[in-house]
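Quick review question:
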């Protein structure tokens, strides 16, 4: 009998502008100021998801802007401004917001 391994959860707490590491899958964002977060390359993260959580409760006041690498997109756009917490999923070429 083989027991599957639990996936590793890599948490990153964001308190300023940052580029995420490819292994990050949970991001706590301090929204006491606007933040710009560069996503890892979608090509190296196929099937991966990243959850974005607002730990300050100010996402409606201070924006979280997500940007991509090169010609990659998020739902067809080079960047998106979050107005609520979300999950992104990579298909190996681009990122998509999971509804």
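Suggested answer, residue by residue:
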């Amino acid at each position: 009998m083989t027991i599957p391994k639990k996936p590793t959860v890599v948490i990153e707490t964001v308190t300023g502008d940052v580029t995420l590491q490819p292994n990050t899958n949970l991001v706590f964002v301090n929204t006491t100021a606007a933040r710009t977060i560069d996503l890892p390359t979608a090509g190296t993260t196929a099937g991966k998801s990243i959850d974005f959580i607002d730990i300050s409760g100010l996402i409606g006041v201070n924006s979280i802007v997500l940007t991509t690498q090169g010609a990659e997109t998020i739902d067809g756009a080079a960047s998106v401004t979050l107005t609520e917490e979300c999950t992104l999923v990579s298909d190996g070429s681009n990122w998509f917001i999971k509804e």
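Why it works: The domain at 18-98 is CATH 2.60.120.640 (Jelly Rolls). The two ends are 36 Å apart (CA to CA).
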